[in-house]
Amino acid sequence: MKNSMKIKNYPAICGMILSLAVAMAACTDYLDKAPESDISEKEVFGNFISYQGWVEEMAICMSNYHQILSGNLYYTFNITEIMQDVPVLWDDGNYWNYSFLGAGSSYLELGTTWGTMSKFAWPLAWYAIRKANTGLQNLELMQGTQEEKDLLKGQCLYYRAFYHLELMQFFGGLPYIDRALAVEDSLTIPRLSYAETAKRVAEDFSAAAELLPLNWANTYTLAAGTNRGRPTKVSALAYKGKNLLYAASPMMNESSTGVNAYDPELCRQAAEAFDEVIRLCEQAGSAFYLETWANWPSIFVKVSASGEDLPGGAEVLQHQTIYENWYVNFTTQRAQLPVQFGSGNTRVESPTHNFIKYYHMANGLPIDDPASGYDPNDPWTNREPRFYNDIVYEGARMLNTATGSWAQYEFAHLHNNGEFRHGTNANYRGSVTGYLDRRYVPVGAGTADGIAYQAYEPRLRLADVYLMYAEAVFHGYGSANDRYPGANYTAQEAIEKIRERAQLQPLPAQYYAAGNFMETLIRERAVEMAFEGLRWFDLRRWNIAGEEKYRQKTGVNFDIDADGKPVNIRETLLTTRVFEKKHNWLPFPVKDTKIYPGWYQNPGW
Asked: Which residues, in sequence order, are CB contacts of 432 under 8 Å at separation 6+?
């Protein structure tokens, strides 16, 4: 057989590992292509520029959950903290409804949705894994410097690990594909336990970290100049730690060993990786560091004259690759602004009231602490700074240019009969909970203010690393006062590092006592990482997603008195999510579980 490839089509021949049997006819068609339409492996992998082009396609295989439109459902993995005026995906327990992942596809699905590229996780992850393996097996063809070879190998290892982890978070343990499968390969690769798969992922991330740079600007290659979107030593170590912490978490550990508790040894390994990330990011001259509070909003949204400046700053360790900037803004505004602001959407996403209660008071205390000063009859006064950045509540400013017809919308009207509250009138298509989310939209977006901006959801940022480090240390070493040996932070100090950045005073010691630590961590992760698509994963891995308080979604109803102040404030249960043991994992497409016996369905499905 001729040893050749067509750059665009070859990786997709068998990019869906589980669909090789179905794809046999397609592979045969490909092998009949005319020789002149092909390019040899030597031409693709023989020099750094071409090889790097092969590698960079793996970066754009990351599904952008912030952008995907699936039946007007946005921000899909914020399902645990938002409501819509139509049922939110998976609230009914129907995990078969995940076509936005492309899991029902048997080919590389790059379909268009409203004119934009829809990047589905299931097919593209397998596609990228095959590309990584193909790149690794052709590394000896590369004629270049050792630095170039190391960078190429490091990226391939990174993406192979990354995309296995991407799928594991949804589906559990997987076969670990570490070679480019040929058409004639028999499908006998066993499905591993979660812990076994995580071990292979950790090995690849470790190897990648040894080869990748701290800063691409300091490399001597034609790819130098920017860290944005490129894997680095820091991101490889951070994902290694996340992978190990997830494997150590109660749900994953129970699936691997039957024990519904943390695995202390895996926690210690995770803490080691996180500590190295923190050390590297805190050293002088690092390209990555925690942003100041003044710059914190620009991690998520960046206002500029051109509207092309990108958010993220130095805190984002792994950026999302974006195809179409305009479409990200389009879907963001449709999800987070009422129809009066030109969003044209009837699926406005509104934060739940029970999630809002996680935000602290200005003095740093939780609202249920008697010393916090929280007044249920005046619930939006004296809250912490992140609340005012993230949440639109009754009376919050909506625009800066309050003239003409826009004057009536200068401030939010979210009371029972407010213009921004959902109702039967077509003009009243807005919040169903009494709140809107504005982490990704600046004041004045979609209005006469003419605000130009970009808003992206980070894939991984440094604040998450500090919080995961705290969790790993606590469960790996036993208390909030412990630290990874020689580390700069105890578990408590790592959490307080993030709270301090948010302008909050330290919590009293009792909040870090053994019986209270996880509640403190859960609350802090909920707020700091709000609307970043992590909470669904967190609640599942902690094995608490089935508890009633995490299944309930509430709103707040209230009226306005003659002075325009909220009165008769009352919390109302809107829905209770369906969550059983089987909902720990998504089900695999049935057709894929029938390909060979080693690929078995997840429990309960």
From this structure: 83, 84, 85, 348, 350, 421, 422, 555, 574
